[in-house]
Amino acid sequence: MELTKKSYIKTGLIYCGIMLGAFLATNLILNLFISFIDLSSASKFVDYLFYNKALEKIPMYVIAIFSSLQLVPLVLIVMYIFFTRQADRKVRFINYPIALCSLVILIQVPSLVLLALNFILKLKTMSFFEKGSSSILFLYAFLDAIFTFSCFYFVLNSIHTKFVLPKYFPDGNISNEKGLFKVSLGFLFKIVYISVLVLPMFVLIVTYLISVDSATFHENTIFHLFFVFFIIFGLVICKHFISYFAEPLARLKEGTQRIAEGDYSHGISLVSADIFGELADSFNNMTNTLDVKSKRLVSVQNSVVTGMATMVESRDNSTGGHIKRTSKAVKVFVEELKKAPEYAACSEKFFNDVAKAAPMHDLGKIAVLDAILRKPGRFTAEEYDMMKTHSAEGARIVENVLHEVDDLQFKQIAINVAHYHHEKWDGTGYPEKISGEAIPLEARIMALADVFDALVSKRCYKESFSFDKAFSIIEESLGSHFDPKLGKVFLTCRPELETLYARFSQ
Asked: Per DSSP, what are the bridge partners of residue 160?
């Protein structure tokens, strides 16, 4: 999906709505808690923490000025969302979680400055209780800001990386964009450490002090209540943090296993601007390079094999164009087999490998003497026996040529095509005289295309047959020469084969 200005603005507003909703929900829960237990009526700490007694000595105009400064981050958020150049839109969109969370936290900076200023101005006149309360309040506000940032960031970044970025950038490769703000692992560990450990422990201490100072609730009741709450909360945050690391690492592990199995086209579906996204992009670039080089190597191997097949054909002047025609015929045939319910168990790769192996079926003829291969008339019994050796010899040559090929399935298919394409369903073929389904399926497929081409092509010992006669001969040979079930599918390819051979005749 294309990243338009409308979708950019819409995403930004949704993220702002999520943060606002979380902020309002948190404050509502806090205020309800304070009101419900009525701590403020009996606790000086609560009075200090939640009712702005910490700022009572600062002039109102100073508070008003600092409060107005809280509008600056809001203006920056509006500018970030609504005022952006098209050239910067992609980078800003990727940076949304960290940018918006950082700007939101800036809203709390004026309050922190006021607390620090109040502490400095009143330091000499403060009582011991006020000094302690002011220090606690400042530390609480500071830790709360970091906690708020970490919660907002993890929520937005999870949504951003799991749903939004893959929607607009399905191919990944975004980590190398100029201008990205990449969150380091060290930074993530620090904010999670503060959020999961430091802030809860600090709140527990404050809660304990409140419970001691309060006549409303028994000390242990409140302390245990908060202790259980933050233990559960810490476990939830830790679980999310673990999944933040575990999920991309699991995908990387799966990717390396697929590469080890020879699937060089496998990529990792992880679109993120952090270190994991960068690692995924590097991994995908590596697999793309391996895939290109692997395909190039296979292409070279195929060219060598095709060259050898062409060389064989150039020696056999009685079968001009046979390899090219049979290869095309096999492609037509396997496309029809892919649609046949009887062969639904065969994979797409199997059929593609059969088509790729078809040009190799007569490689063994390179070992046959020219006097026999180029003979213009029919063979004697002795010559025919020598000609029949080309099947086994072809299997040996194919095995040697493809010795270093990693794709074992393709290698075995190519060997079988060369070795068994002259076997017959009733066991009267050669070289092994095997019958029925003992003949590999790929060889049975090749046999039909090979014989069909021989029937409709002119040879030194015969004229070409018409399509009617050729298909009639094949139909009559089902169950004797050919696999009957496979042959019926081949007969349905007649329109495509006639079109194919019409092009060859031109």
From this structure: none
- Domain limit, last residue, from 243, 260, 277: 260
The domain tally of the chain equals 2
Torsion, Cα 227 228 231 233, to 10 degrees, reads -110
Three-class secondary structure of residue 462 per DSSP: strand
Least confident of 61-65, 78-82, 409-413, 416-420: 61-65
Tokens of 382: 């002795």
In terms of domains, do 244 and 325 share one? no
- Let me know whether 444 and 338 are in one domain: yes
Q: Please tell me whether residues 253 and 322 are part of one structural domain.
A: no
Residue 378 counted as domain residue: yes
Count of CA atoms in the C-beta half-sphere (13 A) of 285: 10
Instruction: Say if CB 251 and CB 280 are below 8 A apart.
Output: yes
Q: Say which DSSP state 430 is in.
A: S
**CA-CA distance, 356 to 409, in Å (whole number)?**
12
Residues pairing with 482 in the sheet: 478
Is 195 found in the same domain as 106?
A: yes
Question: What's the rounded Cα separation, in Å, for the pair 367 and 40?
Answer: 101
| Residue 178 and residue 320 in one domain | no
* % of the chain at pLDDT higher than 70: 80
Q: 466: which residues sit within 8 A by CB, 6+ positions away?
A: 456
The DSSP secondary structure of 228-267, one letter per residue, reads: HHHHHHHHHHHHHHHHHHHHHHHHHHHHHHHHHTT-TT--
216 and 337 belong to one structural domain: no
Range from 19-23, 31-35, 270-274 carrying the lowest mean pLDDT: 31-35
Span 331-358, average pLDDT: 93
Number of Cβ within a 10 Å radius of residue 231? 12
Residue 290 lies in a domain: no
Q: Which of 55-69, 147-161, 324-338, 468-482 has the lowest mean pLDDT?
A: 55-69
Lowest mean pLDDT among 3-12, 209-218, 462-471: 209-218
Residue 485 lies in a domain: yes
Residues 14 and 86 in one domain: yes
Annotate 167-232 with DSSP letters as a single string. Answer: HH-TT---TT-TT--PPPHHHHHHHHHIIIIIHHHHHHHHHHHHHHH-SSS-HHHHHHHHHHHHHH
Rounded CA separation 213/208 (Å): 9
The residue range of the domain holding 209 is 5-260
Q: What is the pTM of this model?
A: 0.52
Can you say how many angstroms the Cα of residue 70 is from the centroid of all Cα atoms in its chain? Answer: 42
For 348, the token pair is: 């797409």
> Does a structural domain hold residue 285?
no
- Examine the domain organization and report whether 236 and 378 are in the same domain: no
Q: What is the largest CA-CA distance in the chain?
A: 123
